[in-house]
Amino acid sequence: MFVSLAVVTVFISALLLVSAGAKSLRTRHITEQMSTLGVPQSMMAFLIGAQIAGAAGAIAGLWWGPIGIAAAIGLTLYFAGAVAFHLRVGDRKGASPAVVLTMASVALIVLRAATL
Which residue stretches, if any, does this entry annotate as coiled coil (predicted)? Predict the structure, then answer.
């Protein structure tokens, strides 16, 4: 069970760090997407910080379970918010990855709780 937890943790953490990197570079794709979703540029630093904190918390959670569960709950809320923002503007295609990551975050909660 711990191996599954480690795999999901590394997967989510890597995706979060890549996404945070893209947001910090303000790539054209990201800025257009955020504009379409109605996310103000002033929120980008918060989103980047939340992604980095989520990745760090998930990794730290491999050693200390409660921090891993807290990070996974935060990630679930983060990605559920992303789903809501995509659906709010009718972007079903863009919501799909966020739905998958929401489910992966829930799996992270379950796996971490099961391995305490």
Answer: none
- And the tokens for 82? 């992303």
Rounded Cα distance, 15 and 72, in Å: 14
Alpha carbons 45 and 102: distance in angstroms, whole number: 21
Give the tokens for residue 76: 């679930």
HSE of 87 in the Cβ direction (CA atoms, 13 Å)? 10
* CB within 8 Å of 8: residues ≥ 6 apart: 104, 107, 108, 111
Run of H or E residues at 5: helix 2-25
pLDDT tens digits along 35-90: 999 999 999 999 999 999 999 999 999 999 999 999 999 999 999 999 999 999 99
Helix or strand or coil: residue 111?
helix
